[in-house]
Design a protein that fits this description.
With 238 residues, this protein is an alpha/beta fold. The chain has nine helices and nine strands. The chain has two domains: 145 residues, Rossmann fold (3-Layer(aba) Sandwich), CATH 3.40.50; 82 residues, SIR2/SIRT2 'Small Domain', CATH 3.30.1600.10.
């Protein structure tokens, strides 16, 4: 750390959850290789065959429900607990709930959550790990057939962007963990944070396409590298 900070923002991607045994969508053995994106991750697909889309996300829930946070998730939660005088926020591209399971707060899921459903009629969001079906009735407006997995499909606008924009413009330290650097708008978050004066770090297995935007680069498994960095951060401010 080159300067004192009061507001820390983490951006986390599939890489941090991969160490908990979860498949990434874009890896060689990832979920997209088993299904066409056009069939399970667009609003057109949902309108065309909603039950098929529901079954895809229903099949994911047991694995994500059982998954446990790894050392990287736990270290971020520990940082929040130890540095209570700091504002520490987590922007995640992941639809799992591993940050929540680790005990973190101030979490913003910009791509949605696997354990949530949204009504396309009234916007009501409900949480459940149970299977969802095209015949489900909204508990709020009571209409049938409008319940969608609360996952941001291709072509849809990511969630919480107004809040995220404010976080990026006010943070002193921006830390990206396990992101590919190719998915926008998240890939551009480091640029916004840096423009407004934040010091920037990336933790990844290898160089990313937006590598040049970061001040510091730490390569290796986040479960090993991030806890060490956070130990040093805690020691600096205690």
């Amino acid at each position: 750390m080159d300067k004192t900070c009061k507001h820390i923002v983490f951006l986390t991607g599939a890489g941090i959850s991969a160490e908990s045994g979860l498949s990434t969508f874009r890896s060689e053995d990832g979920l997209w290789n088993k299904h066409r994106v056009e069939d399970v991750a667009t609003i057109e697909a949902f309108e065309r065959q909603p039950e098929y889309v529901h079954q895809f996300y229903n099949s994911m829930r047991p694995e994500l429900f059982a998954a446990q946070p790894n050392a990287a998730h736990l270290s971020i939660a520990r940082l929040q607990k130890e540095l209570k005088q700091h504002k520490i926020s987590i922007i995640t591209q992941n639809v799992d709930t591993l940050h929540e399971k680790a005990g973190s707060n101030n979490i913003y899921h910009i791509h949605g959550q696997i354990n949530q459903l949204v009504c396309l009629q009234c916007g009501h969001v409900s949480e459940t790990w149970a299977e969802a079906h095209s015949t489900d009735v909204c508990p709020n407006c009571h209409t049938q057939g409008n319940i969608k997995p609360n996952i941001v499909f291709f072509g849809e606008t990511p969630l919480c962007l107004d809040v995220v924009d404010n976080l990026l413009k006010t943070c002193d330290l921006f830390i990206s963990v396990g992101t590919s650097g190719v998915v926008y708008p998240a890939a551009g978050f480091v640029q916004i944070a840096k423009l407004y004066g934040a010091e920037t770090y990336e933790f990844n297995m290898e160089k990313t396409s937006n590598n040049y935007m970061f001040d510091h680069h730490i390569f290796g498994k986040a479960g090993s590298t991030l806890p060490t960095f956070i130990d040093e951060l805690i020691a600096q401010y205690q």
